[in-house]
Every structure is written in structure tokens, then in C-alpha cells.
Amino acid sequence: MPTFTVRNVPEEVHRALKVRAAQHGRSAEAEIRAILETAVKPENRVRMGQLMMEIAREAGITEEEAAMIEQSRDRTPAEPMEFS
User: Fold this and answer.
1) What is the rounded distance in angstroms from the CA atom of residue 26 to the CA atom of residue 32?
2) 3-state secondary structure the chain
3) pTM score, two decimals?
4) Mean pLDDT, 10 residues at a time, the chain of 84 residues
5) Do the beta carbons of residue 32 and residue 18 sit within 8 Å?
6) How many CB atoms lie within 10 A of CB 16?
7) What is the CA radius of gyration of the chain?
8) Are the C-beta atoms of 15 and 31 separated by less than 8 Å?
């Protein structure tokens, strides 16, 4: 699993993070992971597959056709591009 190192975190931010972690009953490291996940994967984000299914239904695709499409969807995460 990838790791991050964050340097030069202000002392007051570090203290606030530890307090927030304690309030949530987890370590500072677990709290940072939770903050990062919330930041990059908000609950109300647009999910491409769901958006495409919505468009397909508006275009007249039947429920049976939509179910077949849904079953065949590839749910593996996309790999980031690499530039050499």
C-alpha cells in the first residue's frame, strides 16, 4: 500500500489532528486516512457508471437491458497513466 510523508505540519495543526482523532476513537494516522478518503471520495460525487446508466434509461433502454449492462460493468479501479 502506498505511503505519504508530510513535512512541516504546523504544531497547531498536529495538535488539532490528534484531538480530532481522539474524538473519533482512532489513531492520528487512521484519522488522516479518513480525512483523505473523504476529501477525494465525497459521498455526493458523480459516479461515471451510475451517470451512464441514468443517461441510458433516459434514452429508452429497458430495465432488462439496463440490468445486463449493469452486470457486465468492469468495477476494477482504473490504473493511473505513466509517462516515461
Assistant:
1) 10
2) CCCCCCCCCCHHHHHHHHHHHHHCCCCHHHHHHHHHHHHHCCCCCCCHHHHHHHHHHHCCCCHHHHHHHHHHCCCCCCCCCCCC
3) 0.53
4) 91 96 96 92 78 84 83 86 87
5) no
6) 11
7) 20
8) no
